[in-house]
Specification:
GO terms for molecular function: enzyme regulator activity; oxidoreductase activity. The structure is a single chain. The protein is mostly helical. It has a domain at 76-110: Cytochrome C Oxidase, Chain G (Irregular). The chain is 52% helix and 0% strand. The chain has three helices and no strands. The chain has helices spanning 2-21, 25-28, 33-65.
């Protein structure tokens, strides 16, 4: 029993002393300004223009495919199935219903 206690004491005391003498990397080097400047510049000069280009692309694609006319309504049995009423309004209109673009089961309102 004493031998086990002595062995455990030596194992644990040796690991504590080994880890206690190794300084962490962040404690040794105190200057992180170059990394911060690098990632700030990457964000400003790569990220912001990328977001602007993607926004412009999406807006131009939307303008190219934007039509004022809506498709003809064809009543299919599997579309606009109402098993129970919506809990708002008359129960037939969805929550964000647009009478110009969203059709009811009977057809367009406008």
């Amino acid at each position: 029993m004493a031998a086990m206690r002595l062995l455990a004491k030596r194992c644990f005391s040796s690991t504590k002393s080994v880890f206690a003498e190794i300084p962490s990397a962040s404690a040794v080097s105190g200057d992180h300004g170059a990394g911060v400047k690098l990632w700030r510049n990457i964000s400003i000069f790569c990220g912001v223009p990328s977001i602007a280009l993607c926004t412009a692309n999406a807006w131009l694609a939307h303008q190219a495919h934007h039509h004022d006319e809506r498709p003809e309504f064809i009543k299919y049995d599997y579309l606009a199935v109402r098993n129970k009423k919506f809990p708002w309004g008359d129960g037939n209109h969805s929550l964000f219903h647009n009478p110009h673009t969203n059709a009811l089961p009977e057809g367009y309102e406008v």
